Structure formats: structure tokens, C-alpha cells
């Protein structure tokens, strides 16, 4: 394909995605479909590197996939699938583990962080080799570019090193992927604590806007969002973090500039602004929620869609894995 291949994985780590995930990542993933060949993977093999409840994991994988589909990931232009449905990921990870230096793996800082967080009992070999599995995910598809945040940069470097090393040792096999630095993407803050990033581990549920919240709840969260004592709708990250966050959300969803929105609410106060913003957000999220619930209500249809994704992914992955096996002498 002429379109550059990108790979991105998402953790099935909560029952609902939140507005930060949506505006900060998912919207961008949907846009990338226009001129890329995206491989989007719900990474359940990665998820079990930290303790999981099996019932919750199974449910969260389906909910995560359903929300991506509902938000506009299009199976005609993208490959969306569940990692454990494509055995080549685990198989290539094994081969790559045999060319990964122990010391090299031991330098991964995310292992140290997660190990400290989850404790000695959860400090497993699987957690340690997580970055090798991530390298396999990326290299299986001839990925040209990987959208990465700062937390994954070191893992992408390892992926590049492993690809180069395998190619040098066994002959040219893998594409060495680049980092795709996303164009300015929105960073969304908590509605009750607008100096903290919106996160699934929010201190108060009122500050966290979930894609699957009932629309009435979403509207209420916006109407009671923390602002400040002034009354001007004006962007000022330092002095007015609450209003600035709401302006970013408004702008990001409507596609209008912050200046344009400020002008519209000039002299009108916070009440109107928050009421209109609630409407703008609900109008955008309600159809995504409805489509997600529809997909979750029809397990056979969701299975069918995930089956299409898994077949497409497996077909591509097996070509690369076959080449790898051949190179190493299997
Ligand atoms: P959380 O912080 O809730 O645990 P994740 O770490 O699972 O979310 O993030 C999944 C994706 O969503 C990542 O690409 C991340 O950059 C993006 N993301 C998460 N929170 C925000 C936010 N508040 N604003 C913008 N993007 C976000
Ligand atoms: Na996070």
C-alpha cells in the first residue's frame, strides 16, 4: 500500500474512555485514516502484565473496541483488532526476546516504575519483557511510523534497535519505524481540578467526562465545572485554568478558534457559555455513546467486526512472521 503504515495500541484499562482519551488521541486516530494505513490494536496481551480480573478484562476489551468503532475507526480504511486474536504477536515476541540483551531490557524505566507501583509479587518476567512484545506488535506490520507519547519513546527506540539488529544479523526483514509526533493535540484537564490532566483515576467523578456517561450527566458535569471568581470568558492558562480548559474543549469539538468563541461570549458571563458548551459536547458524544451501546447489545455483530479485523491483521502478520522464521532457520 502507498499509504504509510502506522501502528497504535490501546490498553483495555477501563469500562469507558474519557473526553481526554477522545480529544487527545481518538480524534487523531480517526483523522489519520485519511492518508495512512493504520493498525489499531486492543492490547490485551500487554494488559495481563499487571494483575487483571478476567471477567473485567474480557468486558473492557469489548467496550474499548466498541468505542473506537463508534467514534469513527472505519474498518474499510483501518485494521482494528484484539491482540490475543493474532498469535503472531506472541510468536514474534519470542524470537525478538532472543536478540534482546538482558542489560538492554533492564534499562527500560517503565518496568522500574510499574514494578515499584505493583509490588514484588506482580514483578514478573512478562512485565519485564513488555517492551519486546511491543516491538513485535510494531514490526509485524511493516510499520513506518508510530504515534508515541513521551512514556513510550524509550520502547520505540528499543524497537528500532531490535529491527536494525535483526536485519544486520539475518538479512533485511523489518522496516525500521519512525516516531510520529502528533500535530498539536488537545490536552484536556479535570473539570473539578483544572490543573490536573483528565484521567480515569480522577479524584472526583464529577471532574471526569466519560464517553459512556448518560447525556444528562455529561451536561450536569459541564454546568458544574469549576471556573474562577471573574466573569469574563477569556483564555488565560495561569489565571483562569478552568475557563481555559473549557475553551479548549469547545474549540476542539466545534473546530472554531478560541478567539472566535471568546468574542461570541463577550459580556455574557459563564452561565451561557457553560450551557452551550454542554450542548456542543453532548451533541458530539451522544451518537458515539448510542452506537457503542448498540454494538455492546449485539455481541454477534461486535464479534463479526472484530473477526474481520483479526483476519486482516493475521494475514499481514503471518507474512512477516513467516519471513522471520525462515531467516532464523525454522
Ligand atoms: P489515563 O491518563 O486516563 O490513564 P491513558 O494513559 O490510558 O489515559 O491514555 C490513553 C490515550 O489517551 C493516550 O494517547 C493519552 O495520551 C491520551 N490521553 C489521556 N488523558 C488525556 C488528557 N487528559 N488529555 C489528552 N489526551 C489524553
Ligand atoms: Na495514563
Automatic annotation (TrEMBL):
InterPro entries named in the record: aa-tRNA-synth_I_CS, aa-tRNA-synth_Ic, Rossmann-like_a/b/a_fold, Trp-tRNA-ligase, Trp-tRNA-ligase_bac-type, Trp-tRNA_synthetase
EC supergroup of this enzyme: ligase
Pfam families in UniProt: tRNA-synt_1b (PF00579)
Coiled coil: none
Motif 'KMSKS' region location, chain numbering: 197-201
Source superkingdom: Bacteria
One GO CC term on file: cytosol
BP GO annotations: tryptophanyl-tRNA aminoacylation
EC number(s) per entry: 6.1.1.2
Keyword Cytoplasm assigned: yes
Keywords: Aminoacyl-tRNA synthetase, ATP-binding, Cytoplasm, Ligase, Nucleotide-binding, Protein biosynthesis
Subunit text: Homodimer.
HAMAP family for this protein: Trp_tRNA_synth_B
Function: Catalyzes the attachment of tryptophan to tRNA(Trp).
NCBIfam families according to UniProt: trpS (TIGR00233)
Protein name: Tryptophan--tRNA ligase
Organism: Agromyces aureus
Amino acid at each position: 500500500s502507498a499509504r504509510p503504515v502506522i501502528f497504535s495500541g490501546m490498553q483495555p484499562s477501563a469500562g469507558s474512555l474519557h473526553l481526554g482519551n477522545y480529544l487527545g488521541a481518538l480524534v487523531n486516530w480517526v483523522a489519520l485514516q485519511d492518508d495512512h494505513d493504520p493498525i489499531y490494536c486492543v492490547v490485551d496481551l500487554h494488559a495481563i502484565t499487571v494483575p487483571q480480573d478476567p471477567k473485567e478484562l474480557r468486558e473492557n476489551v469489548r467496550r474499548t473496541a466498541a468505542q473506537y468503532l463508534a467514534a469513527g475507526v472505519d474498518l474499510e480504511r483501518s485494521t482494528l483488532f484484539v491482540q490475543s486474536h493474532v498469535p503472531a504477536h506472541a510468536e514474534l515476541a519470542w524470537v525478538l526476546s532472543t536478540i534482546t540483551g538482558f542489560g538492554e531490557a533492564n534499562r527500560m524505566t517503565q518496568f522500574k516504575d510499574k514494578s515499584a507501583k505493583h509490588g514484588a509479587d506482580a514483578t514478573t518476567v512478562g512485565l519485564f519483557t513488555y517492551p519486546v512484545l511491543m516491538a513485535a506488535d510494531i514490526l509485524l506490520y511493516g510499520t513506518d511510523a508510530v504515534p508515541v507519547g513521551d512514556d513510550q519513546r524509550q520502547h520505540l527506540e528499543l524497537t528500532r534497535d531490535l529491527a536494525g539488529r535483526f536485519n544486520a544479523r539475518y538479512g533485511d526483514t523489518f522496516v525500521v519505524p519512525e516516531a510520529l509526533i502528533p500535530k498539536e493535540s488537545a490536552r484536556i484537564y479535570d473539570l473539578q481540578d483544572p490543573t490536573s490532566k483528565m484521567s480515569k483515576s480522577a479524584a472526583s467523578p464529577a471532574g471526569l467526562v466519560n464517553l459512556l456517561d448518560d447525556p444528562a450527566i455529561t451536561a450536569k458535569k459541564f454546568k458544574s465545572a469549576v471556573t474562577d471568581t471573574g466573569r469574563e470568558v477569556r483564555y488565560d492558562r495561569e489565571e483562569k485554568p478552568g475557563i481555559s480548559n473549557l475553551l479548549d474543549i469547545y474549540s476542539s469539538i466545534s473546530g472554531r478558534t478560541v478567539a472566535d468563541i471568546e468574542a461570541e461570549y463577550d459580556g455574557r458571563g459563564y452561565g451561557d457559555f457553560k450551557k452551550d458548551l454542554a450542548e456542543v459536547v453532548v451533541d458530539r458524544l451522544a451518537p458515539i455513546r448510542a452506537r457503542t451501546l448498540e454494538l455492546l447489545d449485539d455481541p454477534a455483530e461486535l464479534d463479526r467486526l472484530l473477526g474481520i479485523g483479526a483476519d486482516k491483521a493475521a494475514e499481514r502478520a503471518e507474512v512477516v512472521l513467516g519471513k522471520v522464521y525462515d531467516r532464523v532457520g525454522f
